[in-house]
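Wait, can you check?
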Amino acid sequence: MKEIAAESLSFMPFHKISKEWMLISAGSPEKCSTMTASWGGFGVMWGKNVSAITIRPQRHTLAFLEKNECYTLSFFDEKYRSALNYCGSHSGGENQKIAEAGLTLVPGSTVPVFQEASLTLVCRKLYRQPMNPAGLDKADSEKWYPNKDYHILFVGEILKALEK
């Protein structure tokens, strides 16, 4: 993987996130967790290029995100759709789900980077906030949160963009 400037990314974020999906991962290559996500965004905040991700409180990956300063967002070619489906529908112990999905972590990295990813964004947490249901549209609250398990929002500075 080669490092590129985040400003040179030319993908369509709405399609990339909602249709192609991404893996949110935190920890180290030796002990990490990952989950599939189709919600999130990119932009500029506090003068920095940032990602915005949301994670429900019951997700195993949340504990890793809480404990670590950095996380990664990984994007894959369509041929890895079954791996993304697996990571989105199975909860696994550290690294177990990754191996079962047929994915390989790059050794020697300080954060989870997948050999199969076409693009990986390394992000540093800047902000964490549980969603406040009082501030959420009532129809969306009823539709997306019937169990009242509101997401936790994270905003992270994009430190590196790694492209295959």
User: Anything to note?
Assistant: Strands lie at 2-4, 22-28, 31-37, 41-45, 48-55, 70-75, 119-130, 152-163. The longest helix spans residues 81-89. The chain has one domain: 2-163. The mean pLDDT is 94.
